[in-house]
Design goal:
heterodimer; A: 372 residues; alpha/beta; Rossmann fold; 16 helices; B: 309 residues; 13 helices; elongated; binds adenosine-5'-triphosphate; binds magnesium ion
Amino acid sequence: MSYLLDRFIDEKEIIICGGSGGVGKTTTSAAIAIRAAQRGKNVLVLTIDPARRLADALGIKIGNEETEVPLGELGLNAPGTLHAMMLDMKRSFDELIEKISPTREVAERIFSNRLYQNITTAFSGSHEYIAMEKVYDIHRSGRYDLIVLDTPPTRHAIDFLEAPKKMVDFLNAGIINIMLKLYFQTGKIGLKIFRGGIESLFMLVERVTGGEILREVSEFFLSFEGLYDGFKNRSDAVMKLLKSQKSVFLIIMGPQEVNLDEAFFLYDKISEMGLPFGFFIMNRVHLLPEGFKWDRDKKRKLESLIEEDEKFIFDWIEKYISLSKRDREVAMNVISRTKQPLYLVPEFPEDVHDITSLKNFIDNLMSGEILR
Amino acid sequence: MQKSDFFSKRLLWVTGKGGVGKTTVAISLALLAAESGKRVLLIEVSPTSRISRFLGIPEIVYKEREILPDIFALNIDPRYAVEEYMKLQLKFRFLYNRVLKNKLFRIFATALPGLDDLTTAGKIWYMENLKRKDGSPLFDLVIVDAPATGHCFNLLRVPRATIETVKFGPIKNQTQPIQDLFTDPERTLVNIVALPEEMPASETLEFAEKVRSLSIPLGVVFINGVYPEVDEERFMVLSQKLANEGMEDVVEILSSIEKKGTMQKKYVKILEENFAPNVVKIPFLFTPSFTREELIRIATIINVEMSVG
Ligand SMILES: Nc1ncnc2c1ncn2[C@@H]1O[C@H](COP(=O)(O)OP(=O)(O)OP(=O)(O)O)[C@@H](O)[C@H]1O
Ligand SMILES: Nc1ncnc2c1ncn2[C@@H]1O[C@H](COP(=O)(O)OP(=O)(O)OP(=O)(O)O)[C@@H](O)[C@H]1O
Ligand SMILES: [Mg+2]
Ligand SMILES: [Mg+2]
């Protein structure tokens, strides 16, 4: 039994679940939120791309709506409340622009820029950026005791940590715009140091695309000129909140060796950036029944009980044992390298798709073994 | 799909949700193709080189090299792809250095929508299109260990999107052959790896629909990690018998495997209904580590499945 998670639920205001693609971030986030509601918290789980079956089961709607999950109706008695929200990237971006634009016209001009459309959806890191931004916003509203943030499936689990800085750097590229303006006005760039390089780049882009793109880039940065400070301030505030003791990061990982590198990489980055770390959750572990022994007596007895064509079960058991050994080795590897606690969650026969199975997930996490 | 049809193509994409076994299947396909005498190029589109880790070989880089007999490999980092493209466009080396060494260039490249994806797609086409002196293709087959479905879709779509946006000029002319290659059923197949679970299965159906909407030919759906199938009734009888003899712990292990297999059946069926006969089932290998040996085993299984039809 371990109460580390409960302590975080009680003391923290933001719990962030990170990890590589498909390891169980969304599942874990939802399960932790349920635990929090059971402990009397008013909790919001901000999910990204939940499995449809899970979203349906919890009644989560697409589009930035904070929907209350009717825990009672779903057969779970909890003194707290659970809200769930599925992040709509585009809508969140639009809302942010509206918030920091001085006038409606400025916002409209940005919305109509083709580059803006693209950046909100295709710029690597924009999803992560807006997720952080949304957390900050909701946190400030004070509507909830706790926000559990599920992070997006990124190619690199680390992306979401670097997103705010990347985004701000990108928008700070207004300098390009100054040069673009010069380029359009005079056909060449006045600044001596940039002559040659940038100028020939612009010429090149113009030659291959016909100049249209350049004009759009220019317009985009022009529209953003007055908004840069707003972006920068908010992004700084987000980082400050994440670094404070109000937040805690958890890393979810699978038990295969290939998961180690990425988990360590993410862990190192979290430490390096001075973000508070909680623990690892190793999900989908192959657990052996308590006190399981596979000795000669056991094998002999089993052999006497089964038919010739049922011998395959020997093979199953032995393979399962070796998998469970592997899982434990990988887990021990994490602990000895990081000296951080690690929770084990077993692989369930069925995917985790409703309140009952989420409850089962969190109960297993809570009562399961914790290694340190 | 018959093996001969499958391997007669020029460009095989392997995509799917994160962690489903794309790299595993891509390497296995390369092993199979090389064994049948083809000179294969395996292209990895990933910020971290997984292929090298699987095979226990040095990191795979932007420049191709032979990693196994008749299997060449390279990793496309879009930054290099953009650089290489710009280099091809800029006539003078000194200009190229001045442009690309510029810090602002990277930011600018980010601002150009889809430039990363376009140059990555361009690099794939370029490698497929490489010729020997006598005009025959340098590689008999190109296999792409593609990113997960979301990003992969952007790669597949970018030639068409570019052509629609720029309409004319050099970029359009350069992009047309890429688009022609991607949409040609004689040359290209997009293959999907799926796990027999709810989300991967439903995502596979959605992704297949999106690929079709681009007029890009779909190939095989690889159902990966299929658990062994057992007769449910007989299993119940056996479990009961073992439990009566006090072997509950053995039953617990066995039933965790059996239940998973039973759960998977539904999703295997959905995938088969939608994609048969272009479905290949790959069993879950209960092995603690995943090395060359396991990859060869999977290659052998794929070979058998595709030879039967
Ligand atoms: N312990 C478990 N046993 C069985 N199935 C599980 C377990 N944990 C998660 N799953 C299932 O695995 C699938 C992936 O989980 P989930 O969606 O939580 O991962 P994710 O990390 O959020 O993925 P993505 O990176 O794609 O967002 C889901 O179908 C979920 O039900
Ligand atoms: N048939 C199988 N049986 C057992 N384990 C498997 C099987 N196929 C893949 N795996 C396991 O799944 C892990 C992930 O596989 P792989 O790296 O090929 O997935 P991927 O889709 O390429 O992942 P990514 O999205 O991270 O690129 C492998 O390390 C391997 O341990
Ligand atoms: Mg998720
Ligand atoms: Mg891979």
